Structures are given as C-alpha cells and as structure tokens.
Amino acid sequence: MKLDGAPVLKGSDDPRTRDAVARSILENGPSTAAALGQRLGLTPAGIRRHLDLLTADGILEAREPRISSTRGRGRPSKVFVMTDDGREKFEHSYDDLAVAALKFMAAQSGDHLVTAFAKSRADDIERKGAIAIAKSANKSSALASFLTEQGYAASVEVRATGEEICQHHCPIAHVASEFPQLCEAETEAFSKLLGTHVQRLATIAHGDGVCTTYIPNINPIINPKIQRNEPLTAGKARS
C-alpha cells in the first residue's frame, strides 16, 4: 500500500529499491526504519530487509539515537547512517550530477541562482542546527555533534583565544570545490547559530585535510590591571 506523498517502489528485493534506500539516507541524513518506510512507501518488513542487507555490505550502520532527541516511553529506535565506504560508493555519481545541474543553472540564469541555492541550503542547516543546540550550554560542542550526525565527522579543538570546529569529512566537497558559495553560506550559518563572528580557516573542498572554522572567545579574559589602567610591571615610576 502506498503511503500519502511517498513514491511507489517496485519489488521489495529489487536492487534499485535498495539503492533508493541508501540514497534517501545520503540525501536526508540519519533516519529510522519507520521514517525510511514512510518516505519510500515500503512496508516495515521490506525496509528492514534492505537495511539488513545494506548494513551487512558495509554501506550503512545502525546507531543509537541522541538521548536528547528521544521522547516518550520504550526503547528508542535506532537510526541508520551512511558509512565512509558507503559514501565513497554513492557520492561520486551523485556529486557529478549536482555539479552538472548547478553549472547548467549558472549558465542559463546566472550565478545569482547558485548563490540563492547555497543560501537556501545554509538556511536549512541553520533551522535544523538551532533545534539541536537550543538546550545546550556549550553551543560549539552541540554544533559539532549536530554536524557529525549530518555526516561531517566534526569535533571541537580548544585554542588559546577561542575554539575551532574541525569537520573531518565533507559530504559536498566535490560540489563545493566547484561552487565556493556553498562553503561561504555554511560559514555564515555557523555564525548565526553561535551568535558570534566565525572565520573559515581551511576547507576540504580547497584541498585541505580538514574543514576548520575558528570561533573567537565571546568573553575574553582581560587582565584586571589593564581595566584599572595600572602598570603591568612592579616598582615605582621614574621621576
């Protein structure tokens, strides 16, 4: 039976259906079996069979959901995420299509549409990210956790004058290397989420090993002697 708004997929054992399941996770991020079934119009038994096969092949892996995102009683449903091997197999052709589509868009209607698309994507990151970090006292760590869930394998490094969010994987690196507007809009979204200016120091799309975003301390520690205009060195002033 087809669910409202969901596509009808032929043959629950069809490899094309399995491909659609994997691509749905690639495009929409970590998903539960129930969400995938509704999205693709598959029965619980059908979606479970595909998830088991994709997990056995190393394309997907099952993870426990974030505690903060679970509600109600009972054991929370696991979420399925794309593995690094899975991304290698699926992303290349997907990225090629995305690059071709954006190039066509720019050639036919101008670069401003590519910029608008980048902003739309960044707005989506900001909307989802705001929900993820809303109740966290440490917004940098919460943002890194959110980005990891989205496939960026992010971490936070503490520096002398601030922090750095390091994204060790970039799902859109191939596309962003052709269209830097994507990285620029993403950086602006981070700034809005954290409520402070941030600076992108390096990107995988430009050949760096890690995407690095610097976040300066919002409330830097100031030497109290400077606040009172006192000399920093001991001793009397010369006459």
Jot down its keywords:
about 240 residues, alpha+beta, Arc Repressor Mutant, subunit A, Muramoyl-pentapeptide Carboxypeptidase, domain 2, 2 domains, four-stranded antiparallel β-sheet, three-stranded antiparallel β-sheet, disordered C terminus
Layout of secondary structure:
Layout: H1 15-28, E1 31-32, H2 33-40, H3 44-56, E2 60-63, E3 79-82, H4 84-109, H5 111-133, H6 139-149, E4 154-159, E5 162-167, H7 173-178, H8 181-194, E6 199-202, E7 211-216, H9 224-227
Antiparallel strand pairs: 1-3, 2-3, 4-5, 5-7, 6-7
Helix pairs in contact: 1-3, 2-3, 4-5, 5-8
Explain what you see.
This protein is of the alpha+beta class. It folds into two domains: 15-82, Arc Repressor Mutant, subunit A (Orthogonal Bundle), CATH 1.10.10; 87-216, Trafficking protein particle complex subunit 3 (Muramoyl-pentapeptide Carboxypeptidase, domain 2). It is built from nine helices and seven strands, in the order H-E-H-H-E-E-H-H-H-E-E-H-H-E-E-H. Strand 4 and strand 5 form a beta hairpin. Helix 2 (33-40) crosses helix 3 (44-56). The model is unreliable at 1-12, 220-228 and 232-239 (pLDDT under 50).
Span of the ends, CA to CA: 94 Å
User: How would a textbook summarize the main sheet?
Assistant: 4 strands, antiparallel
Give the rounded overall mean pLDDT: 82
Oligomer classification: single chain
Structural class: alpha+beta
Q: Low-confidence runs (pLDDT<50, min 5 residues)?
A: 1-12, 220-228, 232-239
| Radius of gyration, in angstroms, nearest whole number | 23 Å
Q: Give the proportion of residues in helices.
A: 40-55%
- With helices defined by DSSP (H or I, 4 residues minimum), what is the helix count? 9
The H-and-E topology, N to C, reads as: HEHHEEHHHEEHHEEH
Please write the CATH class name of the largest domain. Answer: Alpha Beta
Number of strands: 7
CATH topology of the largest domain: Muramoyl-pentapeptide Carboxypeptidase, domain 2
Overall shape: it is: globular
CATH architecture of the largest domain: 2-Layer Sandwich
Beta-strand percent range: 5-15%
The CATH homologous superfamily of the largest domain is called Trafficking protein particle complex subunit 3
Overall domain count: 2
Strands in their spatial order, largest beta sheet: 4-5-7-6
